[in-house]
Design a protein that fits this description.
8-stranded mixed β-sheet; 2,3-Dihydroxybiphenyl 1,2-Dioxygenase, domain 1; 2 domains
Length: 263
């Protein structure tokens, strides 16, 4: 996988974390991934913390405001899909049965964004980034490596994301279980996982994966920084090792290495 990637409408290119304690969240992710935070203020006076590795943008963190907390919105990681025309994409979303929840929001120097929900119930963001916005580095330790929809209805998911983003779907065998790759041309840009009853998941979700050289070592840093482990490190049949973890405020994310699976 490339460290940088071309801007492609239909592909995830950003992720951010909504939290209840911005300063403490910045400290947690700095301890886990080595991120450096740069705070910015939007046109409404809200603070947005851009996270960087070696000076390059990898993710964002922001504090849930009072209105979102009253609505019961919990801390969470969100996946942003790049689109070239927000109005057109929202039209396709509506035609496919999705819902617009917030927006469109137009932030000068940042871009246009909308919070939406797919037909499976998963939340995501549609985003037309301004120049020099979005992720700058991927697929290296501490940067985003993958985005995955976990759902009970993979057939409906393939249909929805094909209609809204024009993504092709390829079903592969992953250790005896089907796994769906969402693709632009021949390039996989995201995945769809069939939810199993034993998974600790309530409803469909878009999950954000961050890369690690040593998954077990990163999991220990999560624990040391006050986070918890939802699924201990395990090997995948595609040659990866991963774990599911939670930050101290309740936001869940995944850690994955694409090195050969451990014996």
């Amino acid at each position: 996988m490339a460290e940088t990637q071309a801007r492609r409408p239909g592909a995830p290119n950003w992720a951010d974390c909504a939290t209840t304690d911005l300063e403490a969240a910045e400290a947690f992710y700095a301890a886990v991934f080595g991120w450096e935070a740069t705070r910015e203020t939007d046109s409404n006076g809200a603070i947005y913390s851009v996270q960087r590795l070696d000076g390059k943008r990898v993710a964002g963190i922001y504090a849930l405001d009072d209105e979102l907390r009253k609505m019961g919105v919990p801390p969470h990681w969100a996946t942003y899909f790049e689109v070239s025309d927000l109005s057109e994409s929202l039209g396709k979303l509506s035609d496919a049965g999705g819902k617009l929840l917030d927006g469109p929001i137009d932030e000068p120097g940042v871009g246009q964004m909308a919070v939406v929900q797919d037909t499976l119930g998963a939340y995501l963001r549609l985003w037309v980034p301004a120049k020099d916005q979005g992720g700058e580095t991927f697929n290296i330790p501490g940067a985003m490596i993958w985005n995955e929809l976990c759902t009970e209805d993979t057939d409906a998911a393939r249909t929805f994301y094909g209609e809204v983003f024009g993504l092709d779907a390829e079903v592969i065998d992953a250790g005896g279980r089907p796994y769906t790759l969402l693709k632009i041309g021949q390039d996989p840009v995201a995945g769809i996982l069939q939810m199993k009853p034993e998974m600790k998941v309530e409803g469909a979700t878009w999950d954000v994966y961050f890369a690690a050289e040593d998954v077990d070592a990163v999991v220990q840093r999560v624990r040391d920084a006050g986070g918890s482990v939802e699924a201990e490190p395990f090997d995948l049949p595609v040659g990866a090792r991963m774990a599911v973890v939670k930050d101290p405020f309740g936001a869940v994310f995944e850690i994955m290495s694409m090195s050969a699976a451990s014996a």
